[in-house]
Amino acid sequence: MKKMSTAARAFLISLALLLLCSVLNWGAVSGWGNVRITRITQVGDNGLRYSALLYVPKSATNETPAPAVLMIHGNSGNARNHESWAVEFTRRGYVVLSVDNLGAGDAEYSNEVGNRAVPLTFAQYLFSQPFVDKERVVASGHSAGCTGAVAIANKYPLAACTLANGRAQEYFKADRPYLGNLLWLTSNDDKMNKEAVVLEQVTLVFTNIGALAAGETLEMNKLYGSFEAGNAVQLVNVPDQIHEGAFVNKGHIGAMLNFVQQAVETPNPIAADDQVWLWKDVFGLCGMLAFAATLLTLAVLMLKIPFFASICQPLPRNIGMRGTPLAISIVVALVFPVVCLYTGSFGLGEVFGSREPNLAIFQVRFTNIALPLVMTLNLFGLVMFFLFHFTWGKKEFNATLRDYGLTSAQKTGLDFALIGKSALLAVLVAAIGWTYLDVQNKVFGTDFYCLFFGYKPLAVYKLVYYIPYIILWVLSFVIASLGMNVERRLPSTGSECKDTLIAVLFNALLATATITAMVLIENLIQHNLGANAVALASWKTDLTRLWGMPVGMFIGGAGNTYLYRKSGSVWPGAILMGIVCALSACLYGQVQF
Questions:
Q1: Does an H or E element contain 51, and which?
Q2: Which end of the chain is more exposed for a tag (fewer CB within 10 A), N or C?
Q3: CATH code of 251's domain
């Protein structure tokens, strides 16, 4: 019997772990089949395609209609942001409908349509469902999503309305202002909504709706009115929570559950502090890592196919720096991200992050912070590479394109056949991977998602918009590969297996160390000093919005290095990881198109 190759064995192990993570993630989100998750699509009156996720527990039937919660995310997110909330509400017997706002997730964007259109369209859908008790519907918004939640509250008879980290007293300037049960959630760590400003705004809102007497001082966490009368209102401060932390904070979720369960007759009451949502993030993260491992091992396995076998070249000469030059290179790699974060990627972040229609090449309104940061880092990396080439590379080794892994052993110039085959391999592997995600979504209704970041299927009609991102990410990863795998390539231990493992870990950790440290420091500063803290909170890059960038950079750095070691070429790893990171950043970052 023919022995299974190492490449085939590695792929099958990765695939088995991927399947296991898919099942575990589905179990955590659905309560092991107790909740059916469906992607709902609607066409608005304006002809735009809208999208939402519907979570329906088995107890919600036409014969036994259940209460429901309609959830609306903020500017920088999508329907999956609310999945931690959805897990807890469906456990308690609620139907949950979480929408993709304009341009987010699978929804279409138009700068001519207001941000109330999507929530109102899905409110109409929700109120039309026979398994929903129309007398027990709650609208819930986060940040800019509060606009949509209040629009629903002003139009439909709600049992309650919850607003998280919102800042808009003007939301209640309507012909029929909402006068029912209202929970306003904030945090003294929210630098977008300073505590004094929130108190002023909410005092005005509560006064306008009659919950406070004119001139009365609003007390934080005090309940005004009563649930029996249907006019309970409350401003709750959640400690140790930044603006984006509303979805991953037990105190925040507990306060919301406690309020809604008092306002609405709940089919399956469970104590507010009894929460299990964290497991879906644990299994989501494991799934992301297993997904990346499966793509990488699949790529190596496909390199055994005769057509792609010519991609593999002998590993280039080790011309990596040693001693003081290597130490300087490592220090620079750790320090320069701090400069980029402080300056907002030297202004590139502000250009890419504009909320006005611009940059026609991207066709976006609100783009991802990670892209300009990675581009700036690698523009600097390109300068460092040229310095390396004209000093250490030329002086010590008379380095060639082959030494840089940019061409095949038989060529002195670029080998476009090698690049073309590498691109085809990467596209095929990515297509297989995202087909798996699509099947997982159709079968289980779930994606891999952890703390605002992850992998999900593509909305096919949006595919053309991803192309410019993919090109820029691939170019950035080509430069990154030269830095990681050529300039800082470590001495050999004599074992290729050990060398690969060490290189993968070294490059992955070096790529993520500074970003991870800065994000942690930013959060610690806000938690200890509050929203009025300066230091990192005043930098031109909003560190709290980097979300899953440490995870993405870890996967990108590790994958790029692994395929370089397996193929002897920069191109397979740079192109595949460029595609993977471009899609994950566009899908789960601050992008709308």
A1: strand 49-57
A2: N
A3: 3.40.50.1820
In a domain, 544, yes or no: yes
Q: Which domain holds residue 463?
A: 285-588
**What does pLDDT average to in each consecutive run of 10 residues of the chain (593 residues)?**
80 98 97 96 85 96 97 86 95 96 84 76 94 96 88 91 77 68 87 77 84 87 93 90 84 96 96 96 95 98 96 95 92 91 80 55 60 88 92 91 93 94 98 96 93 84 85 95 95 94 96 88 66 57 75 93 97 96 71 67
Which whole-number Å values give the CA distances from 491 to 326, 331, 382, 403, 494, in the listed order? 11, 18, 23, 15, 9
263 and 292 part of one domain? no
Q: How far apart are CA 530 and CA 326, in angstroms?
A: 40
Instruction: Collect contacts of 304-307 with beta carbons under 8 A, ≥24 apart.
Output: 304/5, 304/7, 307/421
Token couple for 163? 């607003």
- Produce one character per residue of 343-373: b if its CB has 16 or more CB atoms within 10 Å, e if not: bbbeebbeebbeeeeeeeebbbbbbbbbbbb
Residues with Cβ within 8 Å of residue 465, at least 6 apart in sequence: 362, 363, 364, 586, 593
Which residue type occupies 313? Q
Does 305 lie in the same domain as 163? Answer: no
Query: What are the DSSP calls for 202-215, one per residue?
Result: HHHHHHHTTSS-TT
Residue 65 inside a domain? The answer is: yes
Q: Is 198 among the domain residues? A: no
Same domain, residue pair 264 and 300:
no
Structural domain count, the chain: 2
Classify residue 248 by its DSSP letter.
Answer: S
